[in-house]
Predict the structure of Glutamine--fructose-6-phosphate aminotransferase [isomerizing].
Amino acid sequence: EKGPYPHYMLKEIDEQPVVIRKVISKYQDAAGELVIDSEIRACMKKADRIYIIACGTSYHAGLAGKQLIERIADIPVETHIASEFLYNRPILSPNPFFIFISQSGETADIRGVLVDIKQMGHSSLTITNVPGSTLSREATYTLLTHAGPEIAVASTKAYTAQIAVLAILAFDSARAKGIQIDVNPAHELSIAANAMEIMINHKEVMEEIVWQYLNDSHNCFFIGRGVDYYACLEGALKLKEISYIQAEGFPGGELKHGTIALIEEGTPVIALLTQAQVRANIRSNVQEVKARGAHVCMISIEGIAEKEDHVILPAVHEWLTPLVSVIPFQLIAYYAALYRGCDIDKPRNLAKSVTVE
Ligand code: M6R
């Protein structure tokens, strides 16, 4: 039920801090440690390479998952779009482990890959929001995202719950491999949940950004580097699918290789900066587009923010920024769609669960 909310999407955006706290509690053992089923842990430990397969928003969570697993657990990861995997299949490593990410657990493109790798004798894990779904039944193992039913076609809380589960999986795998982690994972995830809540409680900032930057624009660029680039892909997808504004998520460094030709007076550019190591580069990309007339909205994070930035995310561990940076993107998409009178929960041409290839 929507309760007092005008749209399921807004309700589901608001639920995210509670969902992350629920994910933490679901994966905590009696001692408060975040743990994963021991058979899944053994597969992660044995794997020489992990293949994450997903579509749409779940694919973007998979890109964040690649960063998490590689940075925290030191296991190589490739993230693939399910529909491409069958034709552009990489040469598999000797001991692969497959992770399928799907909110619905019913996506046909993913099932195609699952059937294929099962025939090859590989074991797999489905990360899904729906217990008993097809992908959950057919994979060897399942981890649930515990986000509760997601009704709006635009995925929000499922995405952040998927990232939280992937982070827990990464921390658990690191421990299994004897890698020393000098943070308390449950504590860091709780800090991220609180930061998400702070952003959610400042919706008026994102509403104002939409008025200022997207009021009568037909296109919008999202730029970032590293993990921020992955978040930008999700920001662009959200904006496209519900407001129908042509949007593109772009690596800051690639702009000068072509796309900067599209920047003209008043083109909206939303820049994201959460990683200290790319600070100078992204700020110089912002100068480059500004010099060509772009109307830049800068989203940064406490610690590396400058006071003229438009949105400043509360500080969280650098591994967990994707949980927080997506909140302004979701809200910007929501308000842009609202002001355009779009059907927010049921955008045109889209279905919640895509069961055809
Ligand atoms: O149920 P799934 O996570 O497998 O769905 C994958 C995509 O169809 C889905 O994430 C889609 O991109 C969303 N509408 C995005 O908001």
